[in-house]
Structure formats: C-alpha cells, structure tokens
Amino acid sequence: MENKNQLPDYTGFGKLKPETISETEELLSADYYFLQSPAHHVEITKATGHCSLRDYVDDRLGGMWSEYPSLKDCVLRHFFCLDCEKDNNFKLFSKAITGLGNIYLQHLPHRLGKDTILTFHPAGRMVVLRLPLPLDNPIIFPDGDIENDIASEASRTRIIDSYRTTVFVRYKNGALIAVPVHMVEYLAPLAFAYEIAKGLVDNGMISKQKILRMIIQDCSEKQNSAIQIFHGTAGDDYIRYSVLFKGMSNDLKQFQEYEEKIVSKVNEII
Questions:
Q1: Which of 13, 20, 36, 54 is the most exposed place for a label (fewest CB within 10 A)?
Q2: In whole angstroms, what is the distance from residue 160 CA to residue 136 CA?
Q3: Pairing mode, strands 214-218 and 158-171
Q4: What is the DSSP code string of 19-48?
Q5: CB count, 10 Å around CB of 39?
Q6: Average pLDDT in the chain
Q7: How many of the other CB atoms lie within 10 Å of CB of 266?
C-alpha cells in the first residue's frame, strides 16, 4: 500500500532535490529538478493525502497546475495533459537531450490528438530510446550491466528489445539503399532519459550518420511494428529515410514476416 505522505524519488521531468523538502504539521512539499533547473513542485496535505503538482517556468512557479485527492491521481492526470508544443519543461528537456549529439526527440502524444496516451506513477510518461547500431561496424557495449553503467537508477531503466532491422534511404539522385542495422531499445521514465542518452554519447555508441541517429519516442510507439519515415532537409543528400521498428505485439518471426512484406513493396512505400 502506498504511503500517502511519501515523496517519490522522481516524477515527470525531474528528480527529487532533497534539500528542497519542507515539512510542517500540515504539509509536505518538495521540488523536482531537471539538471540544474526546477521542473515541478509537489505539495501533499498530510491529513488527507490531497496533492497539488505545479510546474516551474523560468525558475518560477507558473506553469500547469493540478490538484487531486492523491499523489498518484495527481501525477497521472497532470502528465496526461502534457502539451509538448507549450510545455516549458519539455522545451528544456528537448534542447538538452538533442544537444548531446545525433538524437531525434519526437513530441509525445497530446490529449487533443488521436494518439494513445499512457501515463504512469510516479514517472508521468515513459519513453523508448531506439538506438540503431551498424552491422558492419559493431559497437562494443561497456563491460558489465549497461543499465548500471549508464544510469544511477538501474531499476528505473532497462533494455526491452534487441533485433536486426533495416533502414531504407531514398537519395536525391533517386537511388534507394537498404542499410541493415541492429536495433537496441531502452525503456525509461522521462526523468532518466537524459542520463541514458548522455551515457550512450559518452561511450561513442551513437553514430554520427544522420540516418543512424537515435530516436526517442513515447513508449506507446512500441506497441506495434511499424515503418516510420523521417524527411531530410535541404542540406541532406537524401529525400527521406525510413526505419522498420519492431513492436511488443510481434515476436521475431512475425516481425521478419512483416519486414519481408515491406521489402517486397519498398519502392511503393519509400
């Protein structure tokens, strides 16, 4: 049974900063930080467990504000309403994580859209980090358990899938090239995604080739196998590239059958 007056170690974009914990006879409160910036303020009424969760904007309280009868309800409802277009914490998170290197961060689903929204307590949202490794130049993982090497909270993040797949690249000269890769995928709360990405960059595990950049998406994208298209820019030598991602609903045999169907129609799709 959850202790209604216990603060989680992390929530949303932030990790609990112990020195911000304040406790009186009536209230328990604390701030959650993303890197050096406050992201969220949590306040719990000790007698009832009633909770308020408020976001920081430019180091001041003033962002989205939620109040519910319990901390769990507050977290689930608060991050259900996350709008990446407007959310200050997401903007800071995006700038920091994409600034590490060759990483693409996709906006998380919004409640006004048609996508599935999955929320979790205390994480708020979970993301999948999809890392393509070239087969002809394999990268050796650091010795030991990679979660322990990369994240201080190994129990919060884990490798959830590893499989061979294909990146299809349509170049501006009309050529279509298939690049076989080994895909490694991590599942993590938002609060730990930056550390994982930084660890991968620091260990030289993310390719500098744009078509092999790491993709970070909402965990709902992992439900089904899919081909996802990423368009090039004026400075790229390709028009677009597409990646075949394996979903949790498919085993390797089913995914291989799906890949064969895509390959047979690749000129029509790509």
A1: 36
A2: 23
A3: unpaired
A4: GG-EE-SSEEEEEEEETTEEEEEEEEETTT
A5: 25
A6: 87
A7: 16
What are the structure tokens assigned to 13, written together?
């974009």
Residue 71: phi and psi, rounded to 5, are -60, -45
What are the pLDDT digits (tens) for 207-228?
999 999 999 999 999 998 888 8
- Closest Cα partner for 53 from 45, 64, 190? 64
pLDDT tens per residue across span 185-203: 999 999 999 999 999 999 8
Neighbours of 192 (CB within 10 A): 24
Residue 116, CA atoms < 13 Å, CB-side half-sphere: 10
Q: 8, 38, 13, 7: which is closest to 192 by C-alpha?
A: 13
Taking a C-beta distance cutoff of 8 angstroms, is the pair 186, 128 a contact?
yes
Q: How many whole angstroms separate alpha carbon 78 and alpha carbon 92?
A: 18
* Strands, sheet with 238-245, edge to edge from the N-terminal-most edge strand: 103-105, 214-218, 126-134, 176-189, 158-171, 238-245, 226-231
Is 0.70 surpassed by the pTM of this model? Answer: yes
